[in-house]
Amino acid sequence: MNHLKNERSPYLLQHASNPVDWYPWSEQAFEKARSEGKLIFLSIGYSSCHWCHVMENESFKDDLVARKMNKTFVSIKVDREERPDIDNYYITLSQLMTGQAGWPLNFILSPEKKPLFAFTYIPRETRNNMIGMMDLCDTVDYLWNNKRDELLENANKAINAIKNEIKPERIDYNEAIENTFYSLKRTFDIEYGGFGSAPKFPEYHKLIFIMLYHKYFHGDIHMAVKTLTEMRLGGIYDHVSGGFHRYSTDSMWIVPHFEKMMYDQAFAVLAYTQAYQLTGKKLFMDTVHEITDFVNNEFFGEAFYTAIDADYKNIEGYYYTWDYNDIKDIIDDDFINDFNIKPEGNFISDKISGRNILYLKSEDKLNEKNMKILKKLKEKRVDSPFKDKKILCDVNGMAIKAFSYAYSVFKDRKMLDMARSAADFILYEMYQDGKLYHSYMNGLGPLANFDDHAFFISGLIELYNITNEKKYIDAAIQLNKKCIDLFYDGNGFFNSTGDFRMKEYYDSAVPSGLSAELQNLILLSFIDNNLNVFERAIDSVGYIIKNNPAFASAIVSSLIYYKYSYNIKGSKDFIENIEKKYVPSRLIELSNKNQVCDMNKCIYNPDEIEKILR
């Protein structure tokens, strides 16, 4: 066992028996590098990462590669989910230095942590213009000994480049909202939904923006409805067990990258719930219920887990695909045609062939007969891929908000029970001595970052909306004050307080913590006014919103919330009637007097309230 043997992270423990002498991120590792005059090999990944598994099996488990790495480097493993601050910093450097980034993310660092080279997946042997691990050790060692000054000069340039903050810029809110909608429209895939070409991520926050725009600016909702429908029919959705895979490798949502992430399930629940409110489409309601059952069965203990692996028996997708001969006695001809099954298989990868991904081309094929067959297929799944049961504060915040919101619409008790349990777990186990923690796995992990505060606060607000339990809103107010104290500098929010702190300017495949905190500031302003912080934080990303609005759609959604957020007070019947409506940005409180307040005034007249909220 190497130096990872006492770590809590499932990802680090996966590598604890590698012959590579891995260290966790620690001063011990850097001191060893300095004292022995060695470079650092930094490898960042996560437990359900397919290509992380590939690189481990090819190189890190190989004795010959390990001997060479141990001679050349001090090697450090980082779980990106446990240390998002380190991951964000080096992801940004990788994009700057190479124009690409992904996981595994591998860096060669000086003993002083300066970035010399950046890579994603590295094969064992050099091939197809990709340097292999065996050659890399020799090449890097030569360059470090013969061109050290040049390497360090380039590293310093990269470090200085990411330190440059974007200057705050005032923007016109209405113009920014319009530009974002039409920017998304330009990249929309008319045939299959989604944005851009393959690979396609389920960017739910873009769909949520489109629904907001439809509601308040009368824009076309087709982009959201088309995308949500096509995704639900495609292979990116697990038709047997429920839940969405990470992304689609093709443009048609058929062939997924098979890992399942809890944050995707959370945003899917939110997006499909809101789409159901706006359209009444049964498919969307059924999808929410299926994801709820899947999460409750597979992704939940006292709180929400993190991820389920793409690999099973060391083969990506094996668990989620089907051999025709194994299921021919269960399925019928209609099912075969409806779900595009072929005796020879419709899915081919590097390691398997002859297996089938289930996908549909029409939603009317989700009929009672086919659903019964899917249930029988589920019974054949007697085992499951590796499950990362690490509890992350930010991911749980996303899920608490999503299931709380869904409960207000569907009144499924499982939704409320999961949301409440997760919130209480974090408040009682991960919020100690006035400090919030980022992760929990057999004990507390590192302290919480900005995203942890932002998303957990948003979850607490939504949970308060449906329970009216004072402890949740009190905790939200208290944590928001801490969030401002820890991360706000008068211009915007840093993502952490440590050595790797940076400011978030974009939404990525998942919305930025900034987008969540902006809405928190709006809703909590009904109690504790911090709208000046909201306005300065928007200014801090004004340049991005103005020039790249499609990369800031969740952030721009907060501009709509700014115009259309409501403090709703009234009787239980009054509130239950409003919960049926699409009012996504709201603070709800039980009261003897029915009223709806925006930022400027309160309305008591029932007809006027109905007019505003319909």
Automatic annotation (TrEMBL):
Looking up InterPro entries in the UniProt record yields: 6-hairpin_glycosidase_sf, 6hp_glycosidase-like_sf, Ssp411, Ssp411-like_TRX, Thioredoxin-like_sf
Superkingdom of this protein's organism = Archaea
Q: Where is the signal peptide?
A: none
The Gene Ontology biological process annotation of the record reads: carbohydrate metabolic process
Pfam families named among the record's database cross-references:
Thioredox_DsbH
Q: Tell me which residues make up the Spermatogenesis-associated protein 20-like TRX domain.
A: 2-162
For this entry, the protein name equals Spermatogenesis-associated protein 20-like TRX domain-containing protein
The organism encoding this protein is Picrophilus torridus (strain ATCC 700027 / DSM 9790 / JCM 10055 / NBRC 100828 / KAW 2/3)
